[in-house]
Hints:
Layout: H1 3-27, H2 31-34, H3 38-52, H4 54-63, E1 67-72, E2 81-85, H5 92-103, E3 111-116, H6 125-131, E4 135-137, H7 141-157, E5 163-166, H8 175-187, H9 202-213, E6 219-226, H10 235-240, E7 246-255, H11 263-284, E8 297-298, H12 303-326, H13 328-347, H14 351-386
Parallel strand pairs: 1-7, 2-5, 2-6, 3-4, 3-5
Antiparallel strand pairs: 1-8, 6-7
Helix pairs in contact: 1-4, 1-6, 1-12, 4-5, 4-12, 7-9, 9-11, 12-13
Protein name: Phospholipid/glycerol acyltransferase domain-containing protein
Domain Phospholipid/glycerol acyltransferase: 81-205
Family: Belongs to the 1-acyl-sn-glycerol-3-phosphate acyltransferase family.
Amino acid sequence: MNLKLVKGIAFVLLWYTCIIWAVFFIYCPLIFLLFVNRRWYRKCTDIILSCWELYPASLLEILMGCRVCISGDDINPEDGAILIMNHRNRLDWFFLWAALLHASKPPAHRCKFVLKSDVRIIPGIGWGLQMAGYLFIHRNWEKDRILLKRSLDYFKAIKTKYQILIFPEGTNISENTKAKSHSFADKNGLQRYEHVLHPRTTGFTFLAEYMKSNSQLDAVYDITVGYPKTLPSSETDLLLGNIPEEVHFHIKRFPAKELPSEEAPIKKWCEERWEAKEDALTKFYKPQTDRKFSQDYKCDRPWNAMYFALVAWTVFTMYTIYLTFTSSIALYWILFSTASFIIVSYFSIGIQQFEIDLYNKFDKEDEITQNMNTSIPATNGRNKKAN
């Protein structure tokens, strides 16, 4: 067995087992907090996710030797923002976790991905992303529009700004999807793209319009990803150890005030960004070039934090696995949690929507009652004075 395969197997096992046991032993106990205080629950799950996201980045860069290189603008973690990115392969999201760590100053972020609904039923990672409050869509715009609006309204209600990542292409590049993109271009008299797909602008346009009108949008970050050497295609490549030597991200920040306010101009703006991506990637992949978006790039790594995360999360995973097979209480807890997640995932639209339902049922009613109570004394005072 070659070294690359051994490292790939170790990488996947460490990463995926950490996800599953972190969900069982850290996230699942927080379910009880969900019934007590939704704001605390959201804050706690966000903090845990931010701490955990160091782990896959550490595995990727320390164990597998991948360099994540950033050029362009930094990401302000305090921004309420939309992140748009080209979707080169099925693993872009994985490398983006590390990129957000490097691109955010300070190295922290509150990013929620817009994902296909099927992801939420994947054992471990899908369950964790439900609790993390990610946004799942069903490829039914009438339904998706309502779900996205509910999530955005909830984020505003709990007074927390998030960065919402959406892939406007809708899927990654493959021979099949590229052929469909070419067909769309030919039918509409557009340029054929070789390095990106023509974007589907409906979701992005809605997010931009609604977040801007809802005072949730400070900026749009346009992210372009490129792979100079090894180009993975699917999750199998992780297992086989086919990890890129480098992944380059170029980031451009657009303040919200520069974004058009109406649907048609926003759609046009997104299409123009994709045209610019095609040009940038054509230059990036040009034969016999250095394959960088800019000569001014950085591959800085927060080594101390990464090594700490690598050791701490690995020890946590080993200990909780040991606990599972030596404690009947731990085993029964895992069985109960698994059964609960399966039921919730298959027979509802996810814990993240149940969280919003609880807020709308209890917290909103409390706020309305408090507002009514504070307005009563003033009214009575006016009535007495009138009498």
